[in-house]
Specification:
The chain is mostly beta strands. The chain is built from two helices and eleven strands; from the N terminus they run ββαββββββββαβ. The strands form two sheets. An eight-stranded antiparallel barrel has the order 1-2-10-6-7-4-3-11. Strands 8-9 form a two-stranded antiparallel ribbon. The longest helix is centred in the last third of the chain and has 11 residues, at 118-128. The chain starts with a strand and ends with a strand.
């Protein structure tokens, strides 16, 4: 089983890899849902990021390889707790937060190609609204 992914967000296609060694439980829980399709919207409090709001969805994982400051191209899963479950993709500077305060999410995917299009994706979501996103094995 490969750790390589294809992520299509709006008109952009990115290559990525699962961070299996650093976040094995999060990767396993997400991999079981592939192909995964949803919508991304612009973050409210966190800075330059887009997110998939997931409400009370339970991935059955706790914290692992968690961070409040994902780098551009890092994808994190917040497993829920004080705020709703969510997936966040950083396209620039992010201080991962919610209306409840600072959060930490599990860094479980790193984009490996198409990074030059991240700012264009972020700006498109900011100014034009929700865009589809799809995660699939490459």
């Amino acid at each position: 089983m490969s750790d390589k992914l294809k992520i299509t967000a709006g008109e952009f296609v990115f290559g990525g890899v699962f961070e299996t060694e650093k976040a094995p439980n999060t990767v396993a829980a997400f991999r079981a849902r592939l192909p995964y399709e949803s919508q991304i919207v612009h973050v409210r409090w966190s800075g330059e990021g887009v997110w998939v709001p997931l409400g009370d969805e339970d991935f059955g994982v706790g914290y692992e390889n968690h961070t409040s400051h994902p780098a551009p191209g890092h994808i994190v899963l917040y497993p829920g707790g004080i705020s709703e479950t969510e997936i966040l993709l950083a396209y620039g500077g992010v201080d991962f937060s919610s209306k409840m305060g600072q959060l930490a999410g599990n860094h479980f995917i790193t984009l490996t190609s198409g990074l030059e299009n991240l700012p264009r994706l972020g700006n498109a979501v900011l100014w034009k609204g929700a865009h589809p996103i799809r995660f699939e094995e490459a």
